[in-house]
Amino acid sequence: MSPRFLWYIPNEARPGHRGDDVVEGHNSLETLTAHARALEEHGWDGALLGTGWGRPDTFTVAAALAARTTTFQPLIAVRPGYWRPANFASAAATLDRLTGGRVLVNVVSGKDDLAAYGDDEGDQAERYARTREFIRIVRRLWTEEEVTYDGEHFSVTGSTLAQRPAAREGRPHPPLYFGGASAAAERVAATEADVQLFWGEPLDGVAERIDRLRRLGDRLGRAHPPLEFGLRVTTLVRDTAERAWADAGARVAAMAQGRVAADVDWSAAAGQRRLLDLAARGEVLDRNLYTAPGRFGGAGAGTTWLVGSAEEVAASLRDYQALGVTHFILSDTPYLPELRRQGERLLPLLRATGAP
User: Fewest Cβ atoms nearer than 10 Å: which of 46, 49, 90, 245?
Assistant: First the structure.
């Protein structure tokens, strides 16, 4: 398949996410629409919209942006428990039909403020068991006439959607992205997800995980098309490598002095711990994977950065693609100027070869 290139739209209640410079109206419909339309104009396929209690509702934001665009594909992050599977399957199928098949879904199982919206869950194994049931029910409702499912966490009886997603060849329903690095998460990814997302790990770590997930899917009897793989990473691109590294160093220095707010604490997540451990291997890994941000509050996709000229960052992304990665979710701040800069300078290099 052709690679998919997405950005990140910060649907945040507070301004300044990862140093973004938009303050007034940062989360207005006009501002967020400007991001989505600029993504269309600069060659991006769409953008990830994160989720979490305390943020503006992700699905509502995605629906509003989809209504104001024509090709923009929202990657909508959702949490089992915040959504019941049948409710979500219906909402997503409806939006997918209304947009002509532009919906993408990212199923998130990480910790959240569950009590705030009346949810509850057990340990890690139980959390991922619930996620497995959620994905199974959603997929069946999108593809079957009538569904009855009696699970430990979710049940539906004689459930039928009024409208199914906008299916087409090679895409029977919105693709289901999924992240997680624990053993429990990998079992769900290997058997249930369409796309496994990685954060910015070195090439050897990504290669190891791809191989393990493929073998795990074979061993557990994966019943769906082969699992695909994606990379979510910060890309700091400048005209020259010297300028890029100078800017990266200055930004990390600002983080160290507390002038850039620290990210949400992801330290309990297995994938985050893998990223934080990378600093012990060196400050720069592979061609240009910068590990220093994680030492000063960078987390998630902001823990490691690919730093350099457009040509150098494109070469690094091609290295991941050679391993089997075909979905790329990139970002840098300030978000709107950078999506334009990277759309003009980085994406043409990636599109020119048909792959990063």
Answer: 245
Kindly report, residue by residue over 251-275, the tens digit of the pLDDT. 999 988 886 666 655 555 666 777 7
Distances (CA, A) of 161 to 135, 147, 175: 16, 9, 18
Over residues 3-33, the pLDDT tens digits come to 999 999 998 878 778 878 888 888 999 999 9
Buried b (16+ CB within 10 A) or exposed e, 141-154: bbeeeebebeeebb
DSSP 240: S
- β-bridge mates for residue 290, sequence order: 284, 305
Question: Which distant-in-sequence residues (6+ apart) come within 8 Å of 317 by Cβ?
Answer: 231, 235, 306, 328, 350, 356
Is the separation of the CB atoms in 309 and 342 below 8 Å?
Answer: no
> With contact defined as beta carbons under 8 Å apart, do 40 and 70 qualify?
yes
Residue with structure tokens 């009696």?
150
Is 35:6 a contact under the CB 8 Å cutoff? Answer: no
352: tokens are 């020119």
